[in-house]
Design brief:
This protein is elongated. It has 3 helices and no strands. It is an all-alpha fold. 77% of the residues lie in helices and 0% in strands.
């Protein structure tokens, strides 16, 4: 059985860290290699790049990961009980 708290926080922190890596990548590479178009599509209200939108994107990224944990844990636990 998976722990909600552990999985949700792990996924949230992973997606937040990935967001930071994408922003750093976008700052050090040419425009043709940026991820800002993708980030603007998947993170509501995120626009490339100001301190306010960076914080907003970081929070939204964390919440997407946390949401993934909320969806994944009960499905995994149900299947583990049924087939495990």
């Amino acid at each position: 059985m998976l722990s909600w708290k552990t999985v949700c926080w792990s996924l949230g922190l992973t997606t937040a860290f990935s967001f930071i890596l994408c922003v750093v990548w976008g700052l050090i590479t040419p425009d043709a290699l940026h991820m800002h178009g993708f980030l603007e599509q998947v993170l509501p209200a995120f626009r490339w790049l100001s301190p306010g939108t960076f914080v907003l994107g970081l929070i939204e990224s964390f919440l997407w990961g946390f949401y993934g944990g909320i969806v994944f844990v009960p499905i995994y636990n149900f299947l583990q009980k049924r087939w495990g």
